[in-house]
């Protein structure tokens, strides 16, 4: 879950209960009614109260749970090889816990506001947490034999409020987007600032390294997309809403294809744009989501086996991408033809999408939703493979773990659950 959505979550709670407690203004009382001995309203007609058949029973097919957070859970991430999860929440805390047992291993303290981002480095030796307090805190594994022991390493400062965190795909370099329009790049374990990118006009809502690790792509709430060389503070190119082909209102999500040649960008307007990273221009607009419904997630999928090293088979042009929005739809797009292949349905907003990277499983994708359910789909056909139920609140974030065998979810009710993906 992004820091922007976490902030909206806080605002909604304050709006519902502005004083932090229930109260009645005496001037609002129209008439007082005397007690007449009537039964409470929750009793049934015979005055016996609700029976066992009236109790609500939540369906739960999870295989593990982690209930230690005291408030909504906004972020989960999984270790690249070990059965570990890092979660962060509204209680200003992060945790490292065991996927298999559900046991708490480490409490990640030091934040003074909600923890909205957690991320393991590509080698699994470091864990970063980012919060609404602007802090980025780093822990490292202690020793080489035990994955369960971690120690605090350093605190990185600079951002006003951390919107998201991403590690370099091959090194210990950390990227962060801030609410104050800046993007920060640090070298770990030294904690030295490598670059501060300026050029956005609004909160930097999403960003990442390209899969090849050579470039950085970031986007903001005002609708600007910037492509960077990590070694330079000057953009490689910038797309803004002044170009009507790129008018998305605010940008909420993006993803880059495995070849690092195309970016797919989603906006608050419900629009989706395909951008050529080599040319720095929009090559297509994809219209499948309801107008005005924010595109919250973008994920590429793999529908064919990798091209043989002999080069006798040509790769599919463009690839296949899935976009998920607050209209409850996940749309599967063929970027070779720029056409819609299938539409996947949730009953409420889609909050995240996750492609299995296990060999031979690249066609499977897991979607999470505020309808309290996660679903595994076959992106080749759009058919439902499995439903994952157990949350009593909306699913705000998710991550695949244990080589794609499980999906870990973060619930608005404060619980993390673990499900088998198939």
Describe this structure in words.
The protein is mainly beta. It contains one helix and 32 strands. Mean pLDDT is 87; it is low at 10-55 and 305-316.
- Overall number of strands: 32
Class derived from helix and strand content: mainly beta
Q: Indicate the percent of residues in helices.
A: under 10%
- Give the DSSP E fraction (strand runs of 2 or more residues): 35-45%
Query: Per the principal axes of the C-alpha atoms, what is the gross shape?
Result: globular
Count, helices: 1
> Rg, please?
23 Å
Cross-sheet strand order for the largest sheet: 1-32-31-30
The termini sit apart by 24 Å
Ranges where pLDDT stays below 50 over 5 or more residues in a row are 10-55, 305-316
Q: Based on the structure, what is the oligomeric state of the protein chains?
A: single chain
Mean pLDDT over all positions: 87
Major β-sheet profile: 4 strands, antiparallel
Biased composition (Acidic residues): 14-25, 41-55
Region (Disordered): 1-55
InterPro entries: WD40/YVTN_repeat-like_dom_sf (IPR015943), WD40_PAC1 (IPR020472), WD40_repeat_CS (IPR019775), WD40_repeat_dom_sf (IPR036322), WD40_rpt (IPR001680), WD_repeat_multifunction (IPR051179)
Protein name: Ribosome biogenesis protein Sqt1
């Amino acid at each position: 879950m992004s820091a922007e959505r976490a902030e909206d979550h806080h605002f909604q709670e304050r709006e519902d209960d502005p004083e932090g407690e229930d109260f009645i203004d005496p001037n609002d009382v129209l008439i007082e009614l005397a007690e007449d001995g009537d039964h409470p309203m929750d009793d049934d007609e015979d005055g016996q109260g609700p029976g066992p058949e009236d109790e609500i029973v939540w369906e739960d097919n999870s295989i593990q749970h982690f209930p230690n957070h005291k408030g909504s859970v906004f972020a989960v991430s999984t270790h690249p090889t070990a059965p570990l999860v890092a979660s962060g929440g509204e209680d200003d805390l992060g945790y490292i816990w065991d996927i298999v047992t559900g046991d708490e291993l480490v409490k990640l303290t030091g934040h003074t506001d909600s923890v909205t981002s957690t991320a393991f480095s590509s080698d699994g030796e470091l864990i970063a947490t980012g919060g609404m307090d602007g802090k980025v805190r780093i822990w490292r594994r202690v020793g080489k034999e035990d994955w369960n022991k971690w120690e605090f390493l350093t605190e990185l400062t600079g951002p006003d409020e951390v919107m998201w965190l991403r590690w370099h795909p091959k090194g210990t370099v950390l990227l962060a987007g801030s609410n104050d329009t800046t993007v920060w790049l640090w070298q770990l374990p030294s904690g030295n600032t490598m670059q501060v990118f300026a050029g956005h006009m609004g909160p930097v809502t999403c960003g990442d390294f390209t899969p090849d690790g050579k470039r950085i792509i970031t986007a903001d709430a005002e609708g600007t997309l910037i492509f960077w060389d990590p070694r330079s503070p000057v953009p490689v190119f910038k797309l803004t809403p002044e170009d009507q082909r790129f008018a998305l209102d605010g940008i909420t999500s993006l993803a880059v294809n495995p070849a690092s040649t195309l970016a797919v960008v989603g906006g608050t307007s419900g629009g989706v744009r395909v951008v050529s990273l080599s040319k720095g221009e929009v090559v297509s607009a994809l219209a499948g989501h309801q107008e005005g419904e924010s595109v919250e997630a973008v994920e590429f999928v793999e529908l064919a086996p990798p091209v043989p090293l002999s080069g006798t088979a040509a790769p599919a042009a463009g690839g296949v991408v899935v976009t998920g929005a607050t209209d409850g739809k996940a749309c599967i797009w063929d970027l070779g033809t720029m056409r819609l292949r299938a539409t996947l349905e949730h009953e409420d907003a889609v909050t995240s999408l996750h492609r299995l990277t296990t060999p031979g499983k690249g066609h499977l994708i897991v979607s999470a939703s505020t309808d309290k359910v996660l679903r595994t789909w076959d992106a080749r056909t759009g058919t439902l493979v499995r439903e994952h139920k157990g949350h009593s609140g909306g699913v705000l974030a998710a991550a695949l773990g244990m080589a794609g065998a499980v999906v870990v979810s973060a619930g608005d009710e404060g619980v993390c659950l673990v499900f088998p993906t198939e």
